[in-house]
Amino acid sequence: MDKRVKEILEDLYLIDRSLRKHQNELEKLIEKLLMAKPDVEIDEVFKAKLRAELLDRVAELKAKKALFWNFFNFQKFSYVHVLSLFLLCALLIVPVVYYLNRPAPAEEPPMLANPASVFCEEQGGVLEHRMVEAGQKGFCIFEDGSECGQWDFFRGECQKGERFCKDMCGDGICQEFVCMALGCPCPETKETCPEDCK
Amino acid sequence: MEQEIIEQCKKGNLKEFEKLYDSYFKKIYRFIYYRTGHKETAEDITSQTFIKALEKIQGFDLGRGTFSAWIYCIARNKVIDHYRTRKSELDISGVWGLGKDPNPDIEARDRLREAENYLKKIKKDQREIVLMRVWDGLSYKEIAEITGKNEANCKMIFSRTIGKLKEEIVLLLILLSIYG
Prior knowledge:
The structure holds two protein chains of two kinds. By secondary structure, chain A is mainly alpha-helical.
């Protein structure tokens, strides 16, 4: 019996012992299968050609790898490497430093106090905002009951004790100016004097 | 020894691959030829197999299997690809059958036809295992690694398939004794 056939059969019996009783048929079958195996002729020219092709490929792969690693070959450090590394570091460091030292976003300037209001309070007045025809207006009210428009007081156009409101409500006339001077801050209106202003 | 060569290749000493090429060229070429039956096609697929093995050897993990099984696996996949890309011309069911040698001698053709008659009767995966064991001489361990099956499963498939084919032989012997 052929060595190869015997080997295959022994293998088979190890898997399934019951096959041993069919040894003759199995031997013939394996022989037939082995005999049907196509004859293969190796073309030595092809084998040599493929070997050369593979060696070319080896050289190609080596060259590719060398190109990559040679650049970072620290044993052969050159000025080009130093310069390149310096540039690389600079490219990384500069943006980081710039980012860390960037100016803080400008803070909103604090609201400046109205100088006329400040001046009023400094002079012992109390600030009061009233609605007039032109809108809201700030008045500085003094202890003696006199009052000035805050800006008039600030500009020196009105002094403490100069302008007093005079209650003229009930005289039958709805008067815008009811004080002793121009710019009087207490006009008669439907709200302040409904008797005169109907 | 082979392990040492592979380690060298993995370290980048690819020149060592030449030794692996010398060890496996014939086996791989035959493996492919049995499945294509065509010289030029077998050569083409053999080239593709070795070039791929060379390019990928640095990623090959010795802990996961043998180099032999790995390179056979590449060859097997290349043969499957060959049939897939040419499916309009070729029948993929023939992948694990017998290659159609265009110029076999008469005796060889008869032997081939007889084997084909047996193998036609079994399933594709059974046929693949029988051919790997009988024609390629691969171990069950290698067959298992190449096909992705369990070793015990491969043994079982082989023994059952041979058992089934044996019945065909018995029938043939009976017929020969009647008409012979």
